[in-house]
Amino acid sequence: MSDQVAHFIGGAPVAEGPLFPVHDPVTGAVVRQVHEADRATVDRAVRAARAALPAWAGLSVAERAQWMRRLADAIEERFEDLVAAEIADTGKSITQTRTLDIPRGAANFRSFAEIAAQRPDSAFHLPGVLSYTVPKPLGVVAVIVPWNLPFLLMTWKLGPALVAGNTVVVKPSENTPGSAAVLAEIAAGIGLPPGVLNVIHGYGGSSAGQFLVEHDGVDAVTFTGESRTGSTIMKSVADRVKPISFELGGKNAGLVFADADLDAAVEGCVRSVFTNGGQVCLCTERLYVERPVFEDFTARLAERARALVFGRPQDENTTMMPMISAEHRDKVLSYYDLAKADGAKVWAGGGVPSFGDDRDSGYYVEPTVLTGLPAGSRVNREEIFGPVCHIAPFDTEAEAVALANDSEYGLAATLWTTGLDRAHRVARQLEAGLVWVNTWYLRDLRTPFGGVGLSGIGREGGVHSLDFYSEPTTITIKL
Ligand code: NAD
């Protein structure tokens, strides 16, 4: 990939539109310049996707599944290029990028190839009547994705959308265009039919993202990002009643009961609070701990937070990464300040680390552990999307469930207990699309994924993705 990133339309690079910079979050330096799509470029991409649709939709599922496997193989061949692109844009650690972000990208194509190929046809029999359904693609799908897990989240949508016979126009985040640009090269390299996968770059509102979702030639929108952006997109597609799938924000709760394996709970919460700098929609920002273990748990989590390693991304021991941008760092720090102003006790962090080198111009914040804020504090209600959690004590199971559910969001919850009965009883009472018991972010890609409330609309994963990315036609014959 060159330092200037072009769009990928109809199987070829298209270098048009003004250039905008992408910054390395580690140092703040400009890593690349990217072309911004205007309405004309977006129109070109949507037309390319439309032109490719009949032939792509006309392939059998088995043939499209074979293309998905080829993409997965080619991703593995370009593995280190994808790792480098992802690190340059996000400042993630090489260890995480090699074990999570890029392997999941290949797995997303491979799993949906298998899931689609094995999907049974539906036929329903009544006396003298045969009904069956034929799944058809939605058409041209707009894929709009965020910056926190750029490759993983993009391919999570591309795999099922493409195998279901849609053609796509992807708009990666303006902060993280790199791995999408490498994927475009990979698609061209394996000879994926031109127009099946198109990538355009640019910002969201009044730019490429908005122009894409508003385009009359776009039949459906699949979006991962902030709840507020989801609301804006929903309004802009309302007149055309376009199908939408929304994976949005979270303010996820974790419950730690006194009967939990406390070592496992502390380690699990270190992961669920601080992974990816806390910039995962599934990260825990509110922890509730049963009173007898509250002090011990909090002290141990704070100690582990202070021990996280702010190395360079290329250092395999690095466990803490920067925020994605100066703007996002300032947002996270504003919540640290608010917590202090509201009287929080700061057990760890609360500020900006100092390195004495070029990382001082990067976008780092300290991993932070807070206690002592009321449930109504904005720190406890709003998604911060940084390496921070607030911990509050609880006395009864019912109180723990009520505290966890006291949120407008409902994406993920974690539950730490050795009581099997309690695990089942509490898990089903939690108002969240995903509940993890004694673990976090353990995924079987066949299971439904998504949230309730402000956290989203619909479910993706396994056949649930295929259901969204296709429209069934029911054919009924009188025999
Ligand atoms: P964002 O909403 O600011 O941007 C996401 C994408 O939408 C970007 O590509 C952006 O350019 C585009 N966009 C912005 N405004 C738009 C508009 N008006 N029309 C069309 N496109 C527009 O989100 P972000 O800051 O990139 O990502 C962080 C957010 O994503 C957090 O809220 C996080 O919880 C959420 N997220 C959710 C999930 C999930 O699966 N539920 C996964 C990851 C991230």
Automatic annotation (TrEMBL):
The active site is at residue 247. Keywords: NAD, Oxidoreductase. It comes from the Bacteria. The keyword NAD applies. Residues 20-475 form the Aldehyde dehydrogenase domain. Gene3D superfamilies: Aldehyde Dehydrogenase, Chain A, domain 1, Aldehyde Dehydrogenase, Chain A, domain 2. One of its GO terms (molecular function) is oxidoreductase activity, acting on the aldehyde or oxo group of donors, NAD or NADP as acceptor. Belongs to the aldehyde dehydrogenase family. This is Aldehyde dehydrogenase. It comes from Sinosporangium siamense.
